[in-house]
Amino acid sequence: MKILIDNNLPFWWAAKLRKDGLEASHVIDCGLADRPDDDVRQAFKSEPILLISRDSDFWNDCPAGWSLIWVCIHNPRLADLQSRIYDTIRQAIRNAKPGVRCLVTDDGIIRFGEGAVSGAQDVP
Fold it and tell me: How far apart, in whole angstroms, are the C-alpha atoms of residue 62 and residue 92?
């Protein structure tokens, strides 16, 4: 599954994921820098992708066939993005399946739906 990093997350995440052997792009790589969410949805509407975003709009309106990792961390420090949060994202990617949505918080990952990270909490 192709991984797409949204505008509100570091560009270097895509390069680091590619270095780890994953198919990853940042929206900047796709010519969608600073474009509205609807443009991103349209560009990938027929592709099964794993979107990593800090944007709650995708949580509420994630296209069918997409997986989503929503990074719900307010004003993260650069050091956190470089280490702890990135490592948590890698764990979520390893456990992602089509159609699964995961929420990454300061405390880790909360499971939503089937196939998310084992040991995570179910949220009613």
Answer: 17
